Amino acid sequence: MAFAISEMSAALDPIVEKYRDKQGVAIPLLADVQSEVGYVAQEALEYVGTELGIPAAELFGVATFYAMFRFQPQGKHVVRLCRGTACHVQGSARIAEQLERTLGVKDGETTEDLMFTIQHVACLGCCSLAPVMMVDSTVHGRMTPESAIAVLDGLRDESCKKEGVSC
Ligand code: FES
User: What kind of fold does domain 5-65 have according to CATH?
Assistant: First the structure.
């Protein structure tokens, strides 16, 4: 995803001002960039780095050290599919295959329309509902490949309606 300079400046200038003339600000600066842009975008690091006199490569180096920073855009909805033992026994592999077939993305990837990021995770702590899929902060239990897709279709429809676009 590329940003126009004007878009970037509007989004990042308040962050630049917050950290101007301050020392040792790399981590909070990176966190603010990620919160504003959605991930640690190379263009954003170059912009804030130039404004603050910190080499973008240095900021990037710090970011790669911490698991909290993302280097790819994240979808509007994060879909966590449990691949723990109880969910595996109850068929989570078939759900994973269906998500991959339908959305065209694998574990850790984001759909092209930036609607969904898929993450395979270990036990979500609600094994009695296996197989479990968590979308954002909502837990969906006793999923089937079909019901998992229905949940995501519902979210997509809702989102399109809100934005007044057809999907
Ligand atoms: S194994 Fe999936 S919720 Fe525990």
Answer: Arc Repressor Mutant, subunit A (1.10.10)
